[in-house]
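Researcher: Please generate the 3D structure of the following complex. Treat every line as part of one assembly.
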Amino acid sequence: MAEVLLPRKMEMANDPSKFGSPDLLHVLAVDDSHVDRKFIERLLRVSSCKVTVVDSATRALQYLGLDVEVKSVGFEDLKVNLIMTDYSMPGMTGYELLKKIKESSAFREVPVVIMSSENILPRIDRCLEEGAEDFLLKPVKLSDVKRLRDSLMKVEDLSFTKSTQKRELETENVYSFDSPVQSQLKRTKI
Amino acid sequence: MDLVQMQKSLQDYTKSLFLEGILDSQFLQLQQLQDESNPDFVSQVVTLFFQDSDRILNDLSLSLGQQVVDFKKVDPHVHQLKGSSSSIGAQRVKNACVVFRNFCEQQNVEACHRCLQQVKQEYYLVKNRLETLFKLEQQIVASGGMIPAVELGF
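Model: Done. Output below.
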């Protein structure tokens, strides 16, 4: 059953991000359970996240553009800040999805969180070894989501601050050089 | 019955479901996620649960009714039901599923049949109680009242 729910802009307006940025965290949630999809979507919306929900790992790969041999246009603009996936799903499991994401050049830096109703240590270890950011026991709590969001926003803030500082430095250098050629060189570095 | 009495009835009724172990704190989580912008969230999730469960219980009856029971088919269904009942806080259904899964692992057909009956019983119970809960809420809303806030202190 095709069920890709696109984030509704109306709902984002309800919850202004405390960071004052119009760019909310975009989370891709993957779960084959209807009930759990509805639940995780709400948890994420309430936590000021933009949400895309899909019902299988295959659909997640389609959404990310990782299922095609030839890279199609437009996926460079797709910004996903976090992927939350159920572990046990028919067809491709969350673990297999994790591996595929970590193998891709486009999305390997995106944190992937695994959710499972079963507290199986070897399973948890395997996921963390494969590069999962975190492993959450279901049912997921609002506090889990808030904690994830806060730690990710910190990283986003840091990288935003770093790139702002870099731009400021470059701007200074452009004005301090007399030679226009050198100024041009400086600018292209950015 | 006046509005205040209806609200009190609802609170007492809800409390009883927790005290009887039919619902657990996960249901409170659901209620906390409901607000003016999403006033039907709980009933929407619960409706999905009912739809999923009806389907799963049907599939389980079919699978267990086969001459040769394929536990590879039975177990994922029970796992699914355990998951969704856990997600909405239907504690007794979830617990019955845990027992069911153990017998699936042992491939004990007799015991699995009994487990299925137990799960069905718990499911119809929670379904009945939740439907009553929603009716009480609807009556309050229809009378122009607000659903009393969730009490966490009991």
